[in-house]
Design a protein that fits this description.
Distance between the termini: 48 Å
Structural class: alpha+beta
CATH superfamily: START domain
CATH topology: Alpha-D-Glucose-1,6-Bisphosphate, Chain A, domain 4
Strand order of the largest sheet: 1-7-6-5-4-3-2
Number of helices: 4
Strand content: 35-45%
Number of strands: 7
Number of domains: 1
CATH architecture: 2-Layer Sandwich
Radius of gyration: 15 Å
Largest sheet: 7 strands, antiparallel
CATH class: Alpha Beta
Low-confidence stretches: none
Order of helices and strands: EHHEEEEEEHH
Length: 159
C-alpha cells in the first residue's frame, strides 16, 4: 500500500440530508448534476455516458469529453447509509483497481438551520499530491452541481 493524502471539501446546502443523498444516487438526477458539474468546472464538455447502481457493491461510472479529451471515472459503492453517508472507490484507469482512491461523503443536518452540511474526503495516493488543489476544486464543483440540481438552477441555465 502506498502513502496516502486526503482532499477535503465542505459544502452547505439549503436542502435536507435526505434530498442531498437522493440527488447523488438517483440516476436521473446524477445525469443532471454531472452536466452541472462540467459547467461549474468551466469545462466545455459533454456527458457521454453515466451509470449508477445505488447499492453496496453497485458500480458507478461517469464519462465525458472535456476539451476534446475523453475521461472516464468509475468505481464501486462501498457504503450507502441514507441519509448520512455515501462512500465509493474512484478510479480513472483499470490499473488502479488494486489500490483505488476512496471517496466518502458525510452528510449532516445543518446545526443552525433546515439544510445540511456535506464534508467530502477523497483519499488518494501521495503521488497525486500536485493534483490535490485541482481535485478539491473538482469536488467543490461537483457538490455545487448537486446543489444546482436540488435548487433546479440547472434547468434554468438550460433555457
Amino acid at each position: 500500500m502506498s502513502d496516502k493524502i486526503e482532499a477535503k471539501v465542505t459544502h452547505r446546502f439549503r436542502a435536507s440530508p435526505e434530498r442531498v443523498y437522493d440527488a447523488f444516487v438517483d440516476p436521473d438526477l446524477a445525469r443532471r448534476w454531472q452536466a452541472a458539474w462540467l459547467r461549474r468546472s468551466g469545462e466545455s464538455g459533454n456527458l457521454t455516458d453515466m451509470h449508477i447502481e445505488p447499492r453496496v457493491g453497485g458500480r458507478l461510472m461517469l464519462a465525458d469529453v472535456v476539451s476534446g479529451t475523453r475521461a472516464r471515472h468509475f468505481g464501486e459503492f462501498l457504503a450507502l447509509e441514507r441519509p448520512s453517508k455515501i462512500a465509493f472507490s474512484w478510479m480513472v484507469d483499470e490499473s488502479e483497481a488494486d489500490d483505488p482512491a476512496v471517496v466518502e461523503m458525510i452528510i449532516e443536518p445543518e446545526p443552525n438551520g433546515p439544510g445540511s452540511v456535506v464534508t467530502l474526503y477523497n483519499t488518494l495516493d501521495a503521488q497525486f499530491e500536485d493534483w490535490l488543489a485541482q481535485t478539491e476544486r473538482g469536488w467543490m464543483a461537483m457538490l455545487g452541481g448537486i446543489e444546482d440540481v436540488i435548487e433546479r438552477r440547472d434547468i434554468a441555465s438550460m433555457r
